[in-house]
Structures are given as structure tokens and as C-alpha cells.
Amino acid sequence: MSENPHTVVRGTDTVPARPTETPVTAVPGPVPPTAGDPPGVPPRARTGITGRLARHPLGAGSAVLLLLIVLAVLLAPLLTSADPSASSLSGAFAHPGAGHPLGLDSAGRDILARLLYGGRETLGGAALSLVIALVLGVPAGLYAGYRGGLFDAVAGWFVNLVMALPAMVVLLAGRAILGPRVWVLMVVLGVLVAPSFFRLVRGIVADVRGELYVDAARVSGLSDRRIVARHVLVVVRAPLIIQLALVAGLAIGLQAGLEFLGIGSGSSPTWGAMLDEAFKNIQRAPVLMLWPGLALGLTSGALVLLAAALRDVLEDRGTTRGGRTTKRATAPLPEPAPPAAPTERGALLSLRDLAVSYTLPDGTTKEVVHGIDLDLAPGEILGLVGESGSGKTQTAFSVLGILPDGGTVTRGSVTVAGTEIVGLPEKRHRALRGSVVAYVPQEPMSNLDPAFTIGSQLVEPLRTVLGLRRAEARTRALDLLRAVEIPDPERAFRAYPHEISGGMAQRVLIAGAMSCDPRLLIADEPTTALDVRVQAEILALLRRLREERGLGILLVTHNLGVVADLCDRVAVMSGGRLVETGTAEQVLHAPRDPSTRALLDAVLDDVPARAPWQPTPAAATKDATA
Ligand SMILES: Nc1ncnc2c1ncn2[C@@H]1O[C@H](COP(=O)(O)OP(=O)(O)OP(=O)(O)O)[C@@H](O)[C@H]1O
Predict the structure, then answer these.
(1) 538-552: per-residue pLDDT in tens?
(2) Residue whose CA is at the smallest distance from ligand 1 atom 4
(3) Residue ranges of the ABC transmembrane type-1 domain (predicted)?
(4) Local confidence band at 48 (pLDDT 50, 70, 90 cut-offs)
(5) Which residues contact 189 (CB under 8 A, 6 or more apart)?
(6) Is the CB of 572 under 6 A from ligand 1?
(7) Domain 122-315 has CATH 3.30.70.2740
(8) What is the C-alpha separation between 374 and 388, in angstroms, rounded?
(9) N or C, which end of the chain has less CB nearby within 10 Å?
(10) The domain 375-436+518-607 belongs to what CATH superfamily?
């Protein structure tokens, strides 16, 4: 809740006709309508991952090659009738010929049959390692990254320990203890590489957990499981796939290495064992190195290329193409919820002696909000103002129940529509968020998940919180977009966040906040990131929502111009305390507290505008000669 305390918006009661807010980016060129598009909806390019991979030359080539290798290995009995273990010493080192397309090895065994059957153990073993590593590493990484805490600390310690172990020594020890079976060694390898998956997933999830759009999803009432499935896994997906391909290559290489060193089982034909045998006869028949070498090289190379292609494909999430902008339609929002039963304190929101404290790393406690009393009636807009660090955000987050780690409400009471929030179990608090109290954050763009279209981000809470079916949720989301005056809602519904303007993103967030008919809206600097004209529109929109729906709004802001324009009452905070409350007129015209006067003094709107900068003659000459 910072930035631009001097921007003042006044006189927005009569908002001019909607200005030219940047429309959804239109990509020129006709795009044929896709099957399934409802009538009137602009056509859109819709291709899945497979389609995009098919158009990626390296991706398609490597995928086809891998597929052929896997198919050949699986269909070995159909491709060759030779027994991979049957030897005929008289035919040792025989050249390719009828019945033996690749010839015979040093023991007179069919090379093609050994390659095909050997691939089963090599690829199967690598797949087993991957499954073990995924099963152990990914869920643990997700949990540790998302939740942190003791599990994260213990898992981190354990992972460091496993990673410090020399893999080859552990594999040799595993072989000695568990026996020389390839599958057992691959299980051990899976355990050894699981920490790399853990670290990868944990790191990404810990980053994403702090993203504003994850907070926004939490505030909109989604459960942790839903947030992880929807917003977190999608971020992990691409790096995980790349890691998978790399680890598959590593597993194949390590297994071949063990066999090559003669440490494998030796009983079954694997590519590594073939390489070992060929190496022993390199002087006599160097060509024997070629086939297992080719199989290993092609498989590992294809895996790496496929990983790179998949990364490209997953990162390019497609584009939304649209046609003309249709006429703006403003629809009324759904019927407002019935008015709240009057609470004991007669308010929609009521804070009594609210104190918030943080536990610092050195173990001490720091109180940042020192016991404040505040009431907000239904249909009222209350401005919570104060200098930076005065405790506005902590107060708002206490109401939403989303104080950051280490922060707790240490004293007092917070009731929202009659429900005591302090000490409320998280599950019940989550049920209130979105449906009773909603939140509009300050940075609209950061609060939208870049991986999903606007429509899907609106539909999700409607389905999970209100239990609507997909089609109903879609209709409702479009109504909401219309209600917040988005031109061409259908197109915005299909757009990704990067394809809309900041003003439109803020409208989308307001639509999202209104989606479950809340009674209280907490708006955190909702206009800070917007230009003055769009600010005025957003304020007019909030005013309209209040008038139509009796919505109570707690507006957290630095901007006294916004307060003058929109708020009925103002509460001023300073140093974690409430220093002054009153009607907007009282507080702005006759401030009693010195910190309120300081805030008002900081407003520059009465200062004459500075003349545009002009280069001095000396500077102009210098520039010209430079
Ligand atoms: N995670 C934290 N750990 C410790 N102290 C914190 C933490 N977050 C905030 N604080 C402290 O709480 C106090 C109030 O912060 P808050 O974010 O509520 O201020 P604010 O009025 O919203 O400021 P701004 O308008 O700049 O966002 C500040 O002194 C800040 O240093």
C-alpha cells in the first residue's frame, strides 16, 4: 500500500463517457472459427500441447524417434524371431546376413534380438527410477514449498544428506546388499535422484506461494489443495518435464555405465552389457560398439531434445485472437444478498482493541497494530489512511485472515457480518472469504495468474465456492464482466492477463471479488497502478457497486483525493494506532491529529505545476556536439 501519495482525483462524480481503455490485443489476420465456439464469439486459435509439439521440428522429430524406439523394444518378439540368449560359437562375429540383420556377437548371439530385448531392461529400468523419484520427490517438494515449517526443515536436511552421498558408492553398496538385479539398482537410483525433484519443486513452489495471484486465490475462498492443483502445479509442470527427460537420460547412462563396468546383473542383455562386451572385442570387431552406442546415444539425445521442445511448447501458451470490439453493455449484477442480521455492534465490520504482532527471527515479538477500534456499516465506504508503515495493511489482512507468516492477531476481536474472525478455524474463515468478505488488491496484473485466461480465473471460484456447473459459471462470469463495464466481455473472458490493460485487469479483479456476492469489500489501493482517468472510472464503479448492492467497502489508501471522492468516513492510522476518525469532510477539512495534517500537507494539488523542462543553451550546445 504504497506509491504515489500525491496523485489526487477529484470531481469524478460525473465520470465522462468511457474512454478508450486499451482493448484486448487483436492479432491481425483471419482465424477460422473453432468448432464449439458459441455464436457471436470471436474465433480463437486453439491448439493443444500435442498440436504445438507436432509443429516444433525438433520436438516432433525426437518424439517420433523415442516412440519408434519404445515401440521397437515393446514389439521385440514381432520384429525378430531370434532368441537374444541363444549362442552359436561357430557363428561368432558373423557379418549381417539372412536371419541376422545386424550379425552375431562374440558368443554368436543375434545382435538385433539383444538390442531389442536389452532395451526393455534399459528403458524399463530408467522408467522405474523416474517413477520412484517422482513419487518421492514431487509431493514432498510441493508440501515443503507450499507449507514450509518443520516438514520443510526436516525434508531439506534429509535431502542434503542424500545428495551428499556418492551415488556410485551407494549403488555398489546396494548391489552388494540387495543383489545384482538391474531393477533393484534402478530403485536405489530412483531414491538417489528423488532429492533433485524435491529441490526443483520446492524452490518453484516456495516462489509461487508468495505470488499475489496465489494470495488472491486464497482470498477468493479456494482451498490449499485447489490452489496447488490449479496455480502451483502448472508452474512446476514445464521444469519438471525437462528434469524428467534429463534424469531419464541420466538413469539410462548410469545403468549402462554400471553394466559397462561389469557391475550390473550380467544375466540379461542390456545396452550397457552389450557395450561392455563389444569393448572387450574392439580390436576384432569394432562395429559391435556401434549398435548399443547408437541405441544409447539416440535415446539420450532424443530425450534431451524432446525436453527442450516441450519447454518451448509449454512456455508458449498460445494466443487469444479476437475480432472487433463489440458495444459496451452494462448489466446489473445479480441480486444483492439479503441484508445482514444486525450484529451486536450494529456494524458489518467491527474491530475492537485489535492488536497484531510479529515474531521476529531472534524470537522477540514486535507489535505493529496496537489495539484499534473501528466500525463499518453496510453500504458505507470507509477510508483507512495513514503514512507508509502505519499498519493499514496489517489491519486489512487481519480481517481477511491472511497475515503473513509470523504475524498473528494477539488481542482483540474482529467481527464480519456478526461472525467473530479471531480464532476462527481456517476452514470456516475460508468459507467467509469470497462469499462474505472479498478483496481487491493493488496490483491488478500481479494478482492474475499469467497461465490462465481471465475467464477460467473467474469461473474457478464460482465453481468451487458456489458449486455452479461449468456453463452456469461461464454465464455468471460473463455477467460479472459486463457488470464491471468491460467492453466486449466475451473477448476479455478468453484473453490472458498479458492481453488486457491495467484498468481492465482491475475491473476483472473487482468482478472476481464480486463473484460470490460478498457483503464487505476490502480494496487495497485499488487505483494506485492506474492512470488518472482509469482511476476515476474504477472509483465510479466502486461507488455504483455500493449503491446497487449495499456493499460495505473498506478502502485502504494513501490517496486523500480518492478518500475525498469516494469515502463517507475516514479512519487515520499512525504508528499502528488509530489517531482520528470522522466523516470525510470533517477529517479532510478540519484535521485534529498532527499526522492527519501531515498527510494533507503532503498533497501537492494546490502547488502550481512546474514548467516543462527546457535544456539550457549550454546543455543544448553540448548535446549537439556529442
Ligand atoms: N512480515 C513482517 N514482519 C515484521 N514486521 C512487519 C511485517 N510486515 C509488516 N511489518 C511491519 O508492520 C508495520 C505496519 O505495516 P503495514 O504493511 O501494515 O503498513 P502500511 O500502513 O500498510 O504501509 P504501506 O502503505 O506502505 O503499505 C510496519 O512497521 C512494518 O514494518
Answers:
(1) 888 888 888 888 889
(2) 358
(3) 119-315
(4) low
(5) 129, 132, 167, 171, 251, 254, 255
(6) no
(7) no
(8) 19
(9) C
(10) P-loop containing nucleotide triphosphate hydrolases (3.40.50.300)
